[in-house]
Amino acid sequence: MTNNEFDMVNINNQIKKLHSYYSPTIIAEVNNEYVKIAKIKGDKVPWHTHENEDELFYILEGSLVMELEHQEPFIMQKGDVFVVPKGVKHKVNSDKECTILLIESKTTLHTGNVITEITKSIKNQKTHIF
């Protein structure tokens, strides 16, 4: 965080700073959770799980296809919230640009234990606004 006792972040301003798809950016911290934003376009997110953490998805703009193992895929639209329970294998994709907000435990690995060209470490997800 900054040196201020309290910090306010404008999500719309932070979205304008996103230059890459599949690259979550931490914009805030609350308790033991990170609040992240990301843009998705295409289907590069691999099937993965987070064994010990739930993952909250909130659609800010566009639509997102959510796929859960052994379930029919469903489409999330702007304003929708969905929590992927810990241990559930999942992936997401979007034909057109989609902007999401994620709330994840600080221990949550970007693509679980699956490492691909899009995988970002926590260090690489931190912004310069803090």
Describe the fold and architecture.
- The protein contains two helices and seven strands; from the N terminus they run αβββββββα.
- It has 130 residues and is mainly β.
- Strands 1, 2, 3, 4, 5, 6 and 7 form a seven-stranded antiparallel beta sheet that branches.
What attributes does this structure have?
8% helix, 130 residues, seven-stranded antiparallel sheet, mainly beta
Content-based structural category:
mainly beta
Percent range for β-strand residues: 35-45%
- The low-confidence runs, each spanning 5 or more residues with pLDDT under 50, are none
Estimated helix fraction: under 10%
Shape: globular
Q: The biggest beta sheet, please?
A: 7 strands, antiparallel
Spell out the helices and strands N to C: HEEEEEEEH
Distance between the termini: 4 Å
* Rg on CA atoms, Å: 14 Å
Number of DSSP strand runs:
7
Mean pLDDT: 86
Count, helices: 2
